[in-house]
Structure formats: C-alpha cells, structure tokens
Amino acid sequence: MNWRLIGWLAALVLGAAVLAEVLLVPPTADERWHMLAILGAPAVVTAALVPVLRRWVSSRASVAGAALVVGLCSLALGAVTTSAASNAMFLSSHDYRLFLVVLALSCGIALVVGSQLTRPLARDIARLGQVAEQVAAGDLAARTGVRRKDEVGRTAVAVDAMVHSLQVAADERERLATARQMLFTGIGHDLRTPLAAMRAAVESLQDGMAPDPDRYLTLVGNELSNVEALLDQLVEFARIESGQRKLARESVSVAELAHEAIEALTPVADRRCVRLQLEASGPAAISANSLDISRVMRNLIENAIRHAPPSGLVRVCVVDHTQHDDFGPGISARVTDDGAGFPPEFRDHAFEPFTRADPARATHTGHAGLGLAVTRALVQQHGGRVWLGNGPGGDVGLWFPHKEHT
User: Fold this and answer.
1) Which of 105, 112, 268, 294 is the most buried (most CB within 10 A)?
2) Containing structural domain, residue 40
C-alpha cells in the first residue's frame, strides 16, 4: 500500500474541506457531512485506481502514450469530482447539462493538446533508442542531437558524451595498434642492417677470408655500439610511454646542461668539422630531473650535428624570459644548424617515433628515429613545450616554466 499517496490525498481532502467550511459555511451538520462525502469520494477512487494505472503505464511500449493516458486519467478524475459537486449544488438541470457539455469539450481539447505536446517527447526518446542500437552495431559517429532541458535532454547529453568517449577510446586503441606495428617494424628494420654487417664480418673472420682482421673487429665493435644505442633509445621510449617513470626533481641550470652536452659532443662535431656555439643569458634555472634535461639537450645537439653540413655551425641559445610571447615566463632554448632544414612533409610528423627527416639516410647509425619523440615526451613531462622553428636551417625550440610555476 502506498502510504505516501494516501497521505497526500488525505491532506488535499482536509484542505478542501477547510476551504469549503470557510467559503460556504454549511448551515447544518447533514450538509457538512454531504460536502465531506463529495470531497472524499474522488480521493478514495484515486487511491484505488493509481496502483492499477501505475502497473498498466509501466507495461506500455510508448512513453508518449503513457503520458497521454496519465493526463486523461487525471482529467477524468477531476471531471468526476467537479460533476458530482455541480450536481449536488446546481439548482437548474439545464445549467448542469450545459456544464457537462463544456466538460466534454474540455476533455477533447485536453486530448488534442496532450497528443501534440507528447509527440516531441516520444520522438526524442525514440532517437535515444536508435542511437543505442547504432552504437551497439559499431557506429560510434552516431549522436542523438536532442536538445532539451528536462531529464530526457540530460540523458541525451550523457549518451552523446558516452559515445564520444567510446569513439576517443577506439581512436586511441587504433593509434596504439598502429604505434605497436610501427615499433615492431622499426625495430626489425633498424636491427637487421647492423646484425647483417656483424654476421658478415664474423663469418669472414671465421673463414680466414678477412684481409684486415683488426678493421673487421673494429667494424663489429662499431655496429655493437650502434645496436646498444638503439636499444637504449627503445628502452627509454618504452619507459616514457608506460607512464611509470618517477621524476626526482631538483634545481638545474639549462645553460649548464647545454654546456655539458656541447663538451661531451665536441669530439663528434670535430669529426664532421662542425663548430658548436653556446649563447646563454644566465644560468636559466628550472625545477627538473637533470638526467632528463641533459638527454634532451644531447638529443637535439647530436641531431643538429648529424644534419649540419661540413664546416657548419650548430648554435645553442638559452634565454631566461620574464614573459615569453607564447607561453608566459620561463626558460627557452633553441638549437639551430645551417643545414638544409626540415622537409615540409616531415614537419607534421617530426615528433612521432621512427620518423626521420631523410628516409634515405642509413639506418645502421644507432638512431631509430626516436630522438625527437623521446625529447618531446621528456619536455612535456616537465610541463614544457617543444616545436620546430621556421628558420632556413634546422631549428628546434624548447620552453620550460620557471621553478615557481612548475
């Protein structure tokens, strides 16, 4: 038994009785009881019918039809109450019959208006069902397009947001699947060349066919170094992508780390007759992991050395900005060379793994096209930004927030 419904009906009957007592002032006790019976009868009928109607409405296939039936039932109960009260109080049967005609007209108008008002509700709810079926069939581009402010509208917004999240997750799964395929392809491609060279050298040594064994052993040693460098890049990239790296931050000087990278890479630059130059406006301190920022600077400088022409110049510029034009106060660093620059078709994919500016470049150098991808990941983990410049040569820019903004 629905005690809440009975309580509300009892309160309504009591309120109506008090109002009738004040406005009508029945002269006798019999009239008072008669009036109370007129007011209480519809409440009793309502209490008996509502549970039955609730079960019937719950089993309907159309929400709009159920809403229309609920409205008509409410109108009918109100009409019965009004008719009973009018029959008890009207002195003229002619007036009472006129009241019934007007009441019938009111029920007809309510039916027409109710059907018109519930049609959009039925359409929007049907659209929710259609979108659910489309999504179940694999169409993640489906959207409800329902714009309402009621519960149906909020449900539609939630459904659209859920489908959008599913689409984003599906796109991410596809991206990861493509990345894994690229990873396996890149590893196989970049390991095959040095391994083949080492196998050929070892077989020549074993067969006694090597004219200069020391040179062949040096070749094997160089190829092993290239394989180690490749594996180091792969391991670092895998750690970054897994999100399991823990950063131990401290106050570090970007200018000092750039200077150390230049000192370490000077022998490499000398072999290519490339000059290295550092310009710094101060220590440029940030809160970061020193090993990560050192790897970033070495990656960029080494990449610039490889692409600089013989007798070229690689320039590293570190500036402490009180207000950067694009990112606010922080430390910027630019590594430029006077080589041919980045090809236009490479720029949009420069920071993707296994991407090289020159696909024809030999792949047995220990560089798997991961340098810029690792650089971007490390910079972003420190809240920074990395981008390709628009200069005529190679130009890569970095930005890190100041220590107080990290």
Assistant:
1) 294
2) 3-136
